[in-house]
Every structure is written in structure tokens, then in C-alpha cells.
Amino acid sequence: MTHPNVALVNKFWECLVNVAGFGDGTQQATASAEESLEMLRNEVLTPDFTYCIPGHHPLSGIKHGVDEVAAFFSTMVEKANLLQDNLTITPFGEDGVVDVHHAYSAQGGVNGTFLEIYNCFIYKIRDGKLAEIRVFTNAQHSIDDYFCAIYAYKPIPQSLAN
Predict the structure, then answer these.
(1) Does 157 fall in a domain?
(2) CA separation (Å) from 159 to 27, 69, 75, 153?
(3) Given CB 3.0 to 4.6 Å as the disulfide criterion, which of 16, 47, 134, 136 pairs with 120?
(4) Tally of domains in the chain
């Protein structure tokens, strides 16, 4: 029998396959993108959910809520050619999960750059839903180089908030 926290994490990743096609490229969608977005909003993520990705690249930082997370993972599939395998998903205490993923660039690399890394995800669960995910990696400089080769920062006047 699967631990309920592990089942919740699996449901999160299944929804991302349906919404963005993110995974290892072999999973089949089990629901429409719209149905999966609603499932993320109503069953999987808290309203104040955050996804924290480290680094010094244009995609690093905190993503807030379903829409930002869906856009982030859609970008991973569409432009970064990044895929991942689940290696282990383990309950941690009463309100947590630890998850190790192998991530890699899918085809041909970007600007001659390939990426192969391991990420550790720490999940915080509140009231039966994911409240926070923090990502830790074994090769931050490689990730920074990879994403900086793909995505350009906006020029200074456009990147500064009013």
C-alpha cells in the first residue's frame, strides 16, 4: 500500500504529465490538461503553494500557485528539452516527502550543451495537500549554464519592476 504522502506526490507529477508533458517522455496522459489543472487547484496544491528552484538563471526563484508552476514545466518541455525520471519517493515524517530525480536534456543539447543532473525535492504537506516544494541539485553551475544558454534575461529597463 502506497503511503498517502507519496500518493499525493505521484498525483502531482501525473498532473504535470497531463498539463505539460513533463516526465520521462514515456508516460501517457490520463486526463486532459484542463482536468489536471483543476485537480492541481482543488486536490493537490494548497492555494498558497510555492515551488522553489535555486540558481542564477532566468528560471530560478519561487513559483507561486498552479499557473506559474504549469508555465514553468511547460517551458521545460517546449524549450529546454528537459526530462526526468523518478528515482525514489520516500515519506519523511508526518508532513513531508523526499524525492530524488535524475534530470537530463532530451535531444541534442542546447547550443552544444547537454545536461545530466540529480535533483532532490523536499515536499511540505499541509492539510493533505502540497504546500511547498524545494529543489536541491548536485550540479547548480551546470544548470545555470544550461538555462542561461537557452533563456535570455530581459534588458534592464524591462526587467525592473515599477
Answers:
(1) no
(2) 37, 20, 19, 8
(3) 136
(4) 1
| Nearest-angstrom CA–CA distance, 4 and 37 | 20
Q: What does 72-123 look like in DSSP terms, one character per residue?
A: HHHHHHHTS-EEEEEEEEEEETTTEEEEEEEEEE-SS-BTTB--EEEEEEEE
What pTM, to 2 d.p., does this model score? Answer: 0.88
pLDDT in tens, 47-83: 999 999 999 998 999 999 999 999 998 888 777 777 7
- Give the contacts of 81 (CB within 8 A, at least 6 positions apart): 105, 106, 107, 108, 109, 110
User: Which helix (H) or strand (E) covers residue 67, if one does?
Assistant: helix 65-78
Residue 86, number of CB atoms within 10 A of its CB: 15
Question: What gap in Å lies between CA 30 and CA 5, rounded to an integer?
Answer: 20
The single-letter DSSP state of residue 36 is H
Rg (CA), the chain: 16
Position 132, amino acid: E
Q: How far is CA 3 from CA 45, 69, 152, in A?
A: 17, 24, 41
- Per-residue pLDDT tens over the stretch 40-51: 999 999 999 999
Report the C-alpha gap between 135 and 118 in whole angstroms.
10
Could you tell me if residue 138 is inside a domain?
A: yes
